[in-house]
Specification:
heterodimer; A: seven-stranded mixed β-sheet; 14% strand; globular; B: Protein Yojf, Chain: A; six-stranded antiparallel β-sheet; three-stranded antiparallel β-sheet; DUF1806 domain-containing protein (chain B); YojF_sf (chain B); DUF1806 (chain B)
C-alpha cells in the first residue's frame, strides 16, 4: 500500500488511555506534527496502574508502578516533543465502568477548549483492550454530537485480529522512517513496558520486510466516518 | 519486593488480624491474553480498598504460596504468591510474579486506604 503525506493541521489532539499507547501506534506521526511546530495535546487518561510487567525479581510493585510510569510518560512525551501533556487521572482498567456521560463530557471539554483539526484515538470495536474501547466510544460520541461542519477529522488506531476482515485495511499509511529515532526513543522511555518487545525488535527490524519492521517504519490509521460504519451506540 | 519467607509473612499477617484493614486483591492474565491466543479464556477479578476485618490469616504451601484470611462470616484468599514487601505507606504487599516477570495475582493490606 502506498504511503501519503501527513496533512498540515491546526492542532492535533491525541486521546489514549495508557502511557505507552502513544509510543506504539502514534509516536512517529506525532513527531512529524511537532517537527512542524503544530501544537499537539496528548490527553493520557490513566497512569497504567495495572501494568503486569513488574519483573521477576520485581523492579516495581502494584503501588509504585504509577509513579514509574508517570516518569516514563514524561520522558516519552519529551522524545516526541509534545508540549501539552494532560494526565486525566482515571484509573487503568476501569474506564468501561466509568459513567459514560462523564467520559464523553471529558472529551467534549477537551475538544471545545483546544479546537483541534484532528483527533487521534483508538477505533471502537477493533482496539482489543477494554480501556481502548471505552476511550474510543467516548471520543466518537463527543465528536458525533458536534455540528457536522465543526467536527475535527478522527483518525483511529485499530489492531484487533479481525480488523482487516471487517473494516478493511487502513486508509492512511504514513512513512515515519525519518522520525524513527524519535519513535524508538519514545518506546525506550517506556522501558518498564517495552523491554521485552525492544529485545525482539532489535533482531526483527533488521529483517527486511518483516511484520515487525513494518510496524516501526509505518503508522496506520482508519478514518472514522459517521455513516453506516459508525457502530457506537448512544448512551442509554 | 523480596521472595516470600513464609515465617516472616505469617508474622506480618498475624499483625493485622483483628484490625479494620483496607484490602487490595487482584488476579489477572492481562487484557491481551485472548488477543494473542484466541482460544485463551481470559478471566480476572479486582477489589481495591475493601474494608474488612479478619480473625486470622495463614500462609500455606512450598512456594508459590497461598494466603487465606478467615473473616467473621467469610473468606479471602489468594494463590500463586511469590514475593512480599511494603509500600511507602506501610501496606503489606504480596504478589505472584510469573516466569516472565508479569504480575498474576496481588494481595495487599494495610490500616489506611490505598491511593
Amino acid at each position: 500500500m502506498k504511503t501519503m503525506e501527513v496533512e498540515q493541521e491546526r492542532h492535533v489532539l491525541v486521546i489514549l488511555p495508557h502511557p505507552d499507547d502513544e509510543a506504539f501506534g502514534v509516536s512517529g506521526t506525532i513527531a512529524i506534527h511537532t517537527k512542524r511546530e503544530t501544537p499537539v495535546t496528548y490527553a493520557c487518561l490513566t497512569l497504567g496502574e495495572m501494568g503486569r510487567n513488574l519483573g521477576n525479581p520485581p523492579f516495581a510493585t502494584r503501588e509504585s508502578l504509577p509513579d514509574i510510569r508517570k516518569a516514563e510518560l514524561k520522558k516519552a512525551v519529551e522524545a516526541i516533543k509534545i508540549q501539552d501533556l494532560r494526565m486525566m487521572g482515571l484509573r487503568d482498567k476501569t474506564l468501561e465502568f466509568e459513567d459514560d456521560q462523564k467520559m464523553m463530557n471529558m472529551m467534549t471539554d477537551l475538544i471545545n477548549e483546544l479546537d483541534p483539526s484532528l483527533v487521534i484515538t483508538f477505533y471502537p470495536g477493533y482496539s482489543v483492550h477494554p480501556d481502548h474501547e471505552a476511550t474510543a466510544r467516548a471520543v466518537v460520541r463527543a465528536v458525533r454530537a458536534m455540528d457536522e461542519e465543526k467536527r475535527p477529522k478522527l483518525h483511529c488506531v485499530a489492531f484487533a485480529n479481525n480488523t482487516a476482515e471487517e473494516i478493511g485495511a487502513a486508509d492512511i499509511r504514513y512513512d515515519i522512517r525519518h522520525v524513527y529515532d524519535q519513535k524508538m526513543e519514545a518506546m525506550k522511555a517506556h522501558i518498564s513496558q517495552t523491554i521485552w518487545m525492544l529485545k525482539e525488535l532489535e533482531s526483527g527490524v533488521a529483517q527486511e520486510g518483516s511484520e515487525l519492521q513494518d510496524r516501526f517504519n509505518y503508522e496506520h490509521f482508519w478514518t472514522y466516518t459517521f455513516d453506516e460504519n459508525d457502530k457506537v451506540t448512544e448512551i442509554k | 519486593m523480596e521472595p516470600i519467607l513464609p515465617e516472616k509473612v505469617q508474622e506480618l499477617v498475624n499483625r493485622f488480624a483483628g484490625d479494620e484493614i483496607y484490602l487490595h486483591l487482584e488476579t489477572t492474565n492481562g487484557a491481551y491474553a485472548s488477543h494473542f491466543d484466541e482460544k485463551f479464556f481470559s478471566a480476572g477479578a479486582y477489589i481495591r480498598n475493601a474494608k474488612l476485618t479478619y480473625e486470622h490469616g495463614k500462609i500455606v504451601g512450598d512456594g508459590p504460596y497461598r494466603v487465606g484470611l478467615k473473616l467473621e462470616i467469610g473468606w479471602v484468599y489468594a494463590e500463586g504468591l511469590t514475593h512480599y514487601g511494603f509500600d511507602e505507606d506501610g501496606h503489606l504487599l504480596m504478589a505472584g510474579h510469573d516466569f516472565d516477570g508479569k504480575l498474576a495475582v496481588a494481595l495487599q493490606m494495610g490500616t489506611t486506604p490505598f491511593k
